[in-house]
Amino acid sequence: MVTNLEEIAAYSLLKQNENDNFVDYLKSCNSLEVDEAVLKINEVVEPQIDCTACGNCCKTLMINVSTSETKKLATFLNKPIEEVKHTYLEEGLQQSFIMKSFPCAFLTGTKCSIYENRFEGCKEFPNLKKKDFTNRLFTTMMHYNRCPIIFNVVERLKIVTHYLNSSPTIV
Length: 171
Ligand code: SF4
Ligand code: SF4
Known about the structure:
The chain is mostly helical. It contains eight helices and five strands; from the N terminus they run αααβααββββααα. It has a three-stranded antiparallel sheet. Strands 4-5 form a two-stranded antiparallel sheet.
């Protein structure tokens, strides 16, 4: 299991071609079987990684914030909703908002300062429990070089799907 962010970024550079080919390979696999494999691997990988000691996704993640989440945040921060929107958010698509700044304004060190009230998009990331993994390869692989959970799940998926025939030394 690799959890060091610098190592992951370095491996990612080395594995660019391998990953491009793996993405093509996965598209030819049975998507239900891939979903099942991702779910099983994630059950092993996720508990071994402490997100509160990482917080790396919060530096770059484009989170959608719904109108109801905006209200909830304003209540939690005890600030007028217009002030919360002006300070932290910008207009997104379909009456939703996106965070205004990166890293996220609520990231303190490696931890989320509004953890109990964080947005649905934050809770769901890295989205490995959702169906249709093979339809989300582009967005998932965007975070391969910076999310230890995604990195380790993808590396194990290469073996489970027989894309790689033997265990690479890094997993
Ligand atoms: S709200 Fe919290 S979990 Fe979500 S991106 Fe910001 S710091 Fe990360
Ligand atoms: S989801 Fe990934 S990038 Fe975000 S904190 Fe957890 S391990 Fe780090």
